[in-house]
Amino acid sequence: QVQLVESGGGSVQAGGSLRLSCAVSGSRFSTYCLAWFRQAPGNEREGVAAIGRDGNTTYADAVKGRFTISQDNAQNTLYLQMNSLKPEDAGTFYCAAGAGLLMIGHGRVCRLLKGSYMSWGQGTQVTVAS
Predict the structure, then answer these.
(1) Block means of pLDDT (10 residues each) for the chain, length 130 residues?
(2) What is the spatial distance between Cα 89 and Cα 65, in angstroms, rounded to a whole number?
(3) Distance (Å, rounded) from C-alpha 36 to C-alpha 23?
(4) Is-contact 57 115, C-beta < 8 A?
(5) Separation CA 19–CA 6 (nearest Å)
(6) Which of 25, 45, 46, 88 has the most other CB atoms within 10 Å of its CB?
């Protein structure tokens, strides 16, 4: 069982930056991928960025070039650096952990598919004022 606790959310002006953190604890034996998802009010939870144990990353098109996902294995912490924030980036950000997907010819990969993540944090709120 993996426990995830997010922090770092807040309110920022458009164009500003925030860094989210996720403290990861418990057994990571079955956890290959860590990811960030975002849910705006009335919308589905959608993937933002994911990172595998090998360091490979995946980003949603809307955040490429602005957001950076990283992990500090020594500190058991996942980060999401968010720059050039836009009002449409606002929502509740969730940290997630999962085993990843086995793909023929590619090995284990991390995708932004909500169903492939089994453990979730409680979320941290991000507000972006225009």
Answers:
(1) 95 98 85 95 96 94 98 90 97 95 87 95 97
(2) 14
(3) 13
(4) no
(5) 11
(6) 45
